[in-house]
Structure prediction request, 215 residues.
Amino acid sequence: MKTASELRAELASVFAKLKAGEIKHNEAAELANLAGKMIASAKVQVEYYALRKESPDIAFLKDDEQGRANTPSHHQGHA
Amino acid sequence: MKTCRICNELKPADAYRGTRSACRECESARRREWYAAQAVKPHQRPEMKAYYRQWYAANSESVKARAVEWTKANPDKRNAICKENMRRQREKLTDAYVRRMLAQSIGLRSAHIPQPMVAAQRELLKLKRYIRENSV
Prediction:
């Protein structure tokens, strides 16, 4: 799991398994906790680039075409 | 036998609805086109969107002033609308809500949050909610 899209897909699969009763609640909670840590670390990177007023160049967030289209190319404007 | 006025083909009488001059096939095709055209509402057409954008650019100040005036005159209504919007966004986990949530936690603007991060966070929130609501 190297990208945010893969993380999303993994979380969706965990959600489906949890609903189907294939995994336990505490197991799903642990996975959710881990996913939270991954997102938090990506957030720190985003913050770093924003503070430097640079366009974010983060491999973890770069796999999605739509995401790239929606990501602002610079930090000057606010949509 | 009769000639269809649209496709100009000679067809038997049962290919027509009553005494219509266009055959059933042509009428159906025309109706399909008409319905497809109706799917895009007049206000959604590109030329109308351009017109609205131009109009707003010319009148934005008065629109904003009116909105501020209304907000001052109706604070309760305004609060109720905001609360309802927030409730709906929270419930649906809209892009705007998740983006704002992520942005506020690090003191950035919503526009700074990349879309893949929003999608991952939404999935995480869904999972956490489910766990919270269904754990014993």
Observations:
- Helices of chain A lie at 4-20, 25-51, 65-70.
